[in-house]
Design brief:
This protein is mostly helical. The protein has 23 helices and five strands. The radius of gyration is 23 Å and the shape is globular. The two termini are 22 Å apart.
Length: 463
């Protein structure tokens, strides 16, 4: 994990008692050992059940105390990379969840059960999708390695309360020291052995996922450049269990050199296209207070202006970006979005070009739906939003638009289903469950199956 630093979050010291009560209630009966159907759980399928139960309680508290990003240009990239890593690790991506926290610290951590939190302060310091993959591979390795439970002497309930106090509150470094001293062997401060295992496993996951393995060492370089941010001023025993970044970086570089030397010539993975990462950074810079746009590319600056609703400023930048990258679906989709927002008739032509570049790129399909809806063609809009969901079922706004366009007759129950999906994707699981529960007695057999699937997943994952 990356070490939590800087001002510690004050709310959690007040929320700790509440969190402990939740955790005690959730774990009082002991962790279940069997799945609901009576079959034993395959460890390769996902996190252990005891971890899942504890993680669900943590997430419930986190959702009440933290602010999270839900913009698909930000969250979609993190989730897509994370799921790719999880699949490469031999686990079920449906049992892992990736959150982007609104917090300027350079931090990321994994909670037992497959819940991975990345702070937007860290995203802003990373330079590529490969570096993000390095972060997530390391955190997934902690979950897959069951590192939280390696030391059986630790009291898990108390440890997670301390984690909540640090991650969900804010206060002084002195308060941080008290919280850490109260959990001097806190589980998220992994041992040197576990950190090294996570590094080694993470490199393997990166290679299996088709990423260049130097994404992890590039990420370490970022941390080393940010030493004054990432490493706290005090020297608690919590921190002493972590190997120095320099040591780990050198060891990883040696491991990667040996791995790459054994590969056939020309078999190294390709660098991922930059556009999705630039969309993320542009969208992020528009949402983070006081944050300038990293880099000076026309596309990233255009995305920042677009996400800030400064369409007149965004248009020439996005036109320039399309001239520079005329076959890029992400760039064309951003220009189409700007034109739709401005009501510019050029939107038709640019949407067609974006579809030709990639007929399955969800943002293009979504903005086609917006364009048709604004033109009054409800059926064409509904069809476009459905195509967007076929390309990306987790696109929150496509679900929301379909809920708005499905309010009458036989479509009304489907509208409520799409609303529940939207609520779930925007991190309102309780409200989503209430809407889904009201649909369970419906007559549409296809819809009923989908509703029950969602309810089972909500119960199992808590999110």
């Amino acid at each position: 994990m990356i070490l939590p630093v800087g001002p510690i979050i004050r709310r959690a010291l007040l929320a700790g008692a509440f969190f402990f009560a939740l955790l005690a209630a959730g774990c009082a009966a002991g962790p279940p050992t069997n799945r609901p159907d009576g079959a034993k759980r395959d460890r390769a399928a996902g996190p252990t059940l005891r971890g899942k139960d504890m993680g669900k309680v943590f997430v419930r508290s986190a959702l009440e105390n933290y602010r999270f990003h839900t913009d698909d240009d930000i969250v979609g990239v993190v989730q897509g990379v994370g799921r790719r890593i999880v699949s490469a690790a031999g686990a079920d991506p449906a049992t892992y969840h990736f959150f982007v926290v609104e917090n300027p610290q350079a931090n990321a951590f994994a909670i037992p059960g497959g819940y991975v939190f990345v702070f937007d302060g860290l995203l802003r310091r990373l330079g590529s999708e490969e570096e993000l993959a390095g972060v997530l591979a390391h955190e997934v390795a902690h979950v897959r390695g069951d590192h939280f439970f390696k030391d059986q002497k630790k009291t898990t309930a108390v440890e997670l309360v301390a984690v909540a106090a640090i991650l969900l509150g804010q206060g002084s470094d002195q308060v941080a020291g008290v919280a850490l001293a109260g959990a001097s062997s806190m589980q998220l401060s992994y041992s040197r052995e576990n950190e090294r295992e996570a590094d080694q496993l993470g490199v393997g996951y990166l290679a299996e996922a088709g990423y260049r393995t130097n994404g992890m060492t590039d990420f370490f370089d970022v941390l080393m450049r940010q030493q004054n941010i990432v490493q706290p001023r005090n020297n608690n025993s919590y921190l002493s269990t972590h190997p120095g970044l320099g040591e780990r970086n050198e060891r990883l570089r040696s491991m990667i050199r040996n791995r790459e030397a054994a590969l056939p010539a020309g078999s190294l993975p390709q660098v991922p296209p930059a556009e999705r990462w630039e969309r993320l950074q542009g969208a992020l810079s528009a949402q983070v207070a006081g944050g300038g746009v990293p880099g000076d590319g026309a596309f990233m600056r255009g995305m920042a202006a677009l996400r800030s609703s400064r369409y007149a400023q965004a248009l020439p930048l996005l036109d320039q970006a399309v001239a520079e990258r005329p076959g890029s679906a992400p760039v064309l989709a951003a220009l189409a979005e700007c034109l739709v927002q401005m009501g510019d008739a050029r939107a038709d032509e640019v949407l067609e070009r974006a579809r030709q570049a990639d007929p399955h790129y969800a943002p293009t399909l979504y903005w086609e739906g917006e364009w048709r809806q604004r033109a009054g063609d409800v059926e064409a809009a509904r069809a476009a939003f459905r195509r967007a969901l076929l390309a990306n079922p987790d696109m929150a706004m496509a679900n929301f638009r379909l809920s708005q366009l499905s309010t009458e007759g036989d479509q009304a129950p489907w509208g409520r289903y799409y609303l529940a999906r939207y609520l779930r994707l925007t991190l309102h699981p309780q409200q989503a469950g209430q809407v889904l529960g009201a649909l369970e007695a419906g007559e549409d057999s296809v819809l009923k199956t989908l509703v029950r699937e969602e309810l089972r997943s909500l119960a199992a994952e808590g999110i």
